[in-house]
Amino acid sequence: MSESWLDAVKWNAEGLVPVVAQEAGSGKVLTLAWMNREALAATAREQRAVYWSRSRRKLWRKGEESGHVQAIKDIRLDCDNDAVLLIVEQKGGIACHTGRERCFYQQLQDGRWVTVEPVIKSEQEIYGRK
Amino acid sequence: MSESWLDAVKWNAEGLVPVVAQEAGSGKVLTLAWMNREALAATAREQRAVYWSRSRRKLWRKGEESGHVQAIKDIRLDCDNDAVLLIVEQKGGIACHTGRERCFYQQLQDGRWVTVEPVIKSEQEIYGRK
Fold this sequence. Notes:
Number of helices of chain A: 3
CATH superfamily of chain A: Phosphoribosyl-AMP cyclohydrolase
Structural class of chain A: alpha+beta
CATH topology of chain A: Ubiquitin-like (UB roll)
Largest interface: A-B, 38 and 38 residues
Oligomer: homodimer
Distance between the termini of chain A: 40 Å
CATH architecture of chain A: Roll
Helix content of chain A: 10-25%
């Protein structure tokens, strides 16, 4: 398969593009993560979200430790080719490493960030004792 | 009002944070844009989306030319404080400068990006002759 679709993406100075993952069923925005060219190619090929972990500096097959895989339903690119939207099916119903449904659980209320979404599973339950 | 909530945000090396805008009614992800500290403060104060235009290097009150204002319903911060989600009411039903409902109108199909969403209003209709 030609890789010209990967050339169309405007990668930033670090070779990355921001990626929004939205749950197909609920419509909730789950997370914002980053991909490099290799991660986006793998995502399309494997039909599961593969991100670039900026902290660990390596490919991160979402769910590889937790089982919380994101199965791909749709891959979109924005008007100026520098942001990607994934429509996914979130396995296990948990996208966030904190054990919440999603990462956007802090809400601005009267000048304070308030945690408004519950932990579904503790990190220990998800990742086990190391 | 204290500005400690702005200090909580992990601004990147350019002093920016990526911001996802989602339509409250349809649940559609409209756009990914960027904010600096001043833009996020203005967004909260004015209850409309105010972004930082990286190309024009200035604050961009979304809709200032087009009328396509994004009224704020909810402001969220993610688990590691480096991405923001806005739930908005999109005035005029058009978020994208191309005159489409939203910016994510290119869909990956068999290794090609295909435009799958229509132009609702031409750019000329939106911005007029300059």
